[in-house]
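Box 3.1 A note on notation
Throughout this textbook, protein chains are presented in two layers. The first layer is the amino acid sequence; the second is a token string describing backbone geometry. Keep the layers aligned when reading.
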Amino acid sequence: MSIVQLLEVFYDRIYIAGIDEARSVVESILAGPIDIINTISYEVMYEAGRFKTSYSMSLADAFAAATAKSIDAVLVTKDDELRPAEEAGNFSILWLK
């Protein structure tokens, strides 16, 4: 997960449940078995821009997809807006229910 995607989770939870709940969700994510990528390479930046414009996805999803592609990782999500990019063979997704 990129720091950009973590930010999207944080501000989304603020809208839904307030800042305290948002912080709690982020802390839960950080306590789990997950790597947070804090540095974005130019390669990932260019790929994220391509994904965002080619597949009309959010910026955070574009960064997550580009990061997954660059490190040959499986992206874990339930966000259907990533489906077209996955179906085009750009990266693999493990779909959450």
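Strands lie at 74-77, 92-95. The mean pLDDT is 91.
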